[in-house]
Amino acid sequence: MAKLKVGMIGGGGPGNFFGQVHRRAISLDDTREVVAGALRSDPEQAMAAAKQWGIQGYPDYASMIAAWKKGKLELDYVTIVTPNHAHFGPAKAAVEAGLPVMCEKPMTFTVAESEKLAALVKKGKVPFALAHTYTGHPMMMLAKEMVGRGDIGEIRKIEAWYNQGWLADAAEKTGNQQAGWRVDPKRAGISNCGGDIGTHAFVGATWVTGLKVKKVSARLNTFVKGRLLDDDFNVIAEMSNGATAVITATQIAIGYKNDTGFRIYGTKGSLEWHQERAESLLVRRGQSDEVLWIGGGFSHFTPAVASYLRLPSGHHEDFFEALANLHGSLERQIRLARGEKVPAPFPHPDAQTGLDGLRFIAAAVASSKKKGAWTNV
Amino acid sequence: MAKLKVGMIGGGGPGNFFGQVHRRAISLDDTREVVAGALRSDPEQAMAAAKQWGIQGYPDYASMIAAWKKGKLELDYVTIVTPNHAHFGPAKAAVEAGLPVMCEKPMTFTVAESEKLAALVKKGKVPFALAHTYTGHPMMMLAKEMVGRGDIGEIRKIEAWYNQGWLADAAEKTGNQQAGWRVDPKRAGISNCGGDIGTHAFVGATWVTGLKVKKVSARLNTFVKGRLLDDDFNVIAEMSNGATAVITATQIAIGYKNDTGFRIYGTKGSLEWHQERAESLLVRRGQSDEVLWIGGGFSHFTPAVASYLRLPSGHHEDFFEALANLHGSLERQIRLARGEKVPAPFPHPDAQTGLDGLRFIAAAVASSKKKGAWTNV
Amino acid sequence: MAKLKVGMIGGGGPGNFFGQVHRRAISLDDTREVVAGALRSDPEQAMAAAKQWGIQGYPDYASMIAAWKKGKLELDYVTIVTPNHAHFGPAKAAVEAGLPVMCEKPMTFTVAESEKLAALVKKGKVPFALAHTYTGHPMMMLAKEMVGRGDIGEIRKIEAWYNQGWLADAAEKTGNQQAGWRVDPKRAGISNCGGDIGTHAFVGATWVTGLKVKKVSARLNTFVKGRLLDDDFNVIAEMSNGATAVITATQIAIGYKNDTGFRIYGTKGSLEWHQERAESLLVRRGQSDEVLWIGGGFSHFTPAVASYLRLPSGHHEDFFEALANLHGSLERQIRLARGEKVPAPFPHPDAQTGLDGLRFIAAAVASSKKKGAWTNV
Amino acid sequence: MAKLKVGMIGGGGPGNFFGQVHRRAISLDDTREVVAGALRSDPEQAMAAAKQWGIQGYPDYASMIAAWKKGKLELDYVTIVTPNHAHFGPAKAAVEAGLPVMCEKPMTFTVAESEKLAALVKKGKVPFALAHTYTGHPMMMLAKEMVGRGDIGEIRKIEAWYNQGWLADAAEKTGNQQAGWRVDPKRAGISNCGGDIGTHAFVGATWVTGLKVKKVSARLNTFVKGRLLDDDFNVIAEMSNGATAVITATQIAIGYKNDTGFRIYGTKGSLEWHQERAESLLVRRGQSDEVLWIGGGFSHFTPAVASYLRLPSGHHEDFFEALANLHGSLERQIRLARGEKVPAPFPHPDAQTGLDGLRFIAAAVASSKKKGAWTNV
What we know:
Four copies of one chain form a homotetramer.
Chain A: E1 4-9, H1 17-27, E2 32-38, H2 43-53, E3 56-57, H3 61-69, E4 77-80, H4 88-97, E5 101-103, H5 111-124, E6 128-130, H6 138-148, E7 155-163, H7 177-182, H8 185-188, H9 193-207, E8 213-221, E9 232-239, E10 244-250, E11 259-266, E12 270-274, E13 280-284, E14 289-293, H10 303-306, H11 319-337, H12 351-369, E15 375-376
Parallel strand pairs in A: 1-2, 1-4, 2-3, 4-5, 5-6, 7-10
Antiparallel strand pairs in A: 7-11, 8-9, 8-15, 9-10, 11-12, 12-13, 13-14
């Protein structure tokens, strides 16, 4: 099978994190390759970056998509890693052109944009994936499968969290670029902590269980003086089946890095997963604890999840492999649509997930302003 | 030094848990002994139980306290392990008589009772200890010392939890006595999960940090059909210094046993402790993680905490030893008052802690009824 | 039931560790009490120490045993916590007098003494327990039960270890009394590290599996200059069923405290246990890992082990409770012999275990001197 | 910088593990690519496999190397993933031709071959890397740096192990190809367990510490009936500085997957690392434990190690990334030799390491046959 050809939008700035991780995730399986890019917002810099990457450069995403439309460039999908406020433009353009999309999260800057985009995706039936990396980890996929087939019964309660410590001080005032845009309402939108990492906890609570958030009571804090957006995010949520979820995120937990995970309590048992020890999933049913591990050969994996495993047990797959799995799911959608024989894609986050996330954050911000009043999502 | 003589009130029923654990905690150090008891509410059964224990029996607490008053019985303190609604009577009687008290938690059945009792204790300057066992664990004591001396700076956020799974089904309908009284409003009061284990999480959040809870927004759930009290308890709290605390407890987390603990985030670092792996305390300051262990000889212990250690490092002290430490603190108060030379007692939970706990639960129940409205404690 | 009365031999020196831990282990259950003692080798100091403990004093063990013989002192058993070279005398005297014994390990100073003592115990059918504390932990007892009933099949390989770091420097030269006698051949015998902690690893390998060590190939090291005995101990052993055991101990592993445990590999599965996280036992059979926990109510405990549990799940029993269990097993033997109704005692280490341990160390020392030549035990 | 072009030798059989993992490790960083291959021993199958991979095929390694020699094929290095007995031929051919080599371990089938190859590499100054994957993990690299700069003082003792369970039954008789060749003396050589995984433990003990093994006393076992080679491997070793190492490996530890790691005890502290939780390194110095984590931004990394990190803290790199780091070190050697500006390569295992490993296994097999007699390496 020929490699899929990927066009990258954004990601070419010096030291850009997301550009590099997607590039590696695309390359990892040797079945996809980055061939073209509109890598920066400045046209000249975009061309220079592409040259440095050794790929076909374009001054902007519009001209890259146009080149593909005209048959002057072969592309199978685009990957969007621009700043948050610049997701909507290229995503809309690609979807309208019928070009599949891997989009970084949050999907767009506003709920309204997400509503438009999700509608376009639905209408055009264009493969669209949202880069919630952790959902690509086989143990998180397994958790979704287990909940889905009723292993732990009806869900009663969910705890989902994301603890970080890197914004405990005013890092944005000492030249940290990653901090700079995240706490700037113009570039980050209505929420910093909630939008940046609270959404990951939200996806843990909803994607794994298949439940929706109906309404929320929230308390957002800004602990660091002078900051305009939240750096701490606490939500009690009512789920679509009546379950309660406690969804929290913070950036002031000194020494915590990417401590995200979930505990899900059902009428028959419980599941617990931690991203920082992603290779195992704790299953509790009452007597002993069962610890399930990642790796080929284990009978606890369904074929759907097993089809994503690259290594036998005892050798772990982690961040890059999880992100590569999301690209892999998009790849499978594209190849299946062409009639190639590949396994079915796992139902990874899509445009609807993106829209739900934006709505959740908007409701939480609104509730917090109303002193925690229960607010519909 | 002669052993302190202890009178036990309650605890003599067949298979009674609290009676046995206090008896062991009293005996452990060979410096205290149970010598008398009014072990059951039925006078005849009380006398029979005392005979079986091999101690001096009394038909009721009043006659035991009276015997002591008249000089017919030597006693240094009483330990109250009656059902929750029967704490107030003997506690009041003992305190009014000037007899020191170790009282099981919750201190009383109602806030009003606790207010009276705390006032009496204060007025009479009677040594009074509340049996929040976990606070007797040296690593929880160390955490309090570290916060107190500013090791992690000003507190911004607290997470404190208690997860259990044993009431995930209607155990109260299948003859489980422990379940039976806990979910019965007549015997347990206004809250089951909050009062029984939420208070432990509350003590984790307040006793360790020295902060008070100012107001709460709560969502209490009853997941098991037919139950009249909560079996799930979720609170977002505002602390006296403006910090936010997320305090949760549940009894429907299947496979979770006594999973209680806390994470405390300050401006200089973080502390994390789990009761089910009580022997270590995680200290995070940003670069490496530091894991502190229990045991004599470690320089991280202050003399105040070190004076409670019985074993060198690598050998752990746990539940019984922690409870024995609470008795030890009461013992120290009593001995010091007599001019004996013993180390100063650690500031373990007292009548004020008990009153604060009752008020916290009352406020949470009220807030939950008002759909999470912020309610003063 | 009346409390058993215990006479203590040794243990009364200032700051003596073993005296205090046995005293607490005896008191814990409120069914045994120390009533008399010959607490130090110097008669006057012995009497003074007894007075301080508040018990009946004797100037030496001979007179205490004599007083019991003449009916002037009630005793049910003695506990021997003298220095290693002074175990044999009182143990022999007690056994010959028909008085049950709890003896600290190693049982005696020489193999010859142990042979005599084991023969006397056998002949006299006197209850005799050897204080290998860790074997009193319910999870180690459970491991023995599981191996015994064939849960992991035929044993092929065993790893048992004990890592400490407190003798990494010449602590014996800076006034550390615990270090002083251990590295002194006159007081510790032919081996320091092997005799002191290697025997614990040996017991892990043999008591749990029910296997004997047939022959050994050993390498003992002395890393700290000027030391006359080993501070590092490495043995490859052939077991009675042909299995191989790797038994190691060291005192120079800086930062390791009482890191002892075992891995046992059978034809059907594996068991792994660590003393420093004693509350769980890892059972591996190939697919998932099973983690079994301590605590009343778990179906994985046999009635024999469950009869030793004091707490429900989620609350851990550790060092004191394990030692109290050994006293409990001796207590059950004594009470059963009198016709009292108590559960059967668990087969804890006895005089034969003590003899086997001495022989194992002697063989290891001999093998090491012969450059690791395989040496029969 | 142009991508390095890699020729693959072996690895093209259906379901071949090593071919796929190296292919992914080569692709991951988007700076190297597989362009040609002699993927199977059968010429026709080799060509067919290359076609399937989408690369330039050759019927055998000789013709691929010849094509490069003649300038008909651009290559920067070859990766050898043939069966063990077929490493020497292509490695020798490549080195003699001056073409850099990444070679799977064990380096060759016999000590004699390794001696020849190491001499050729030395003479020709050809970049040569041995694929001991775990040494590419940043935490193992950090351990080497820490030992090298004296953080834990002079090394006294080493424990290094590798526990697996997949050969606990006669998997070779039920069609498991991976098992089949490993227990066949014709394809695996003189040792199965020692050669396959004992060498990893050996590299843990030597590469990290910089010490050599001087002599060994070994006991090899074959637990599964009918097997001609060892499936269990136990060595006590004397190191070049007088330290003792206990090096063990087994394939009959049911439920253990790739449980390899080390503990290193020095005069100032200890290091402990486990491959199955590779993201952290435990540093013990006596009081608290220090846990160091992988990830960009940590001050505990030297620039040499930091130059290999791809992700910030809290996101882990594991197996593929470690193997990619070995390719990266080879890449740096090649680019530096051309005058390109890249960071200095880390001193990863090379031909000398490979030779040392073969000699170690040979000495262990010899010692075991002589009943554990100490045997020079």
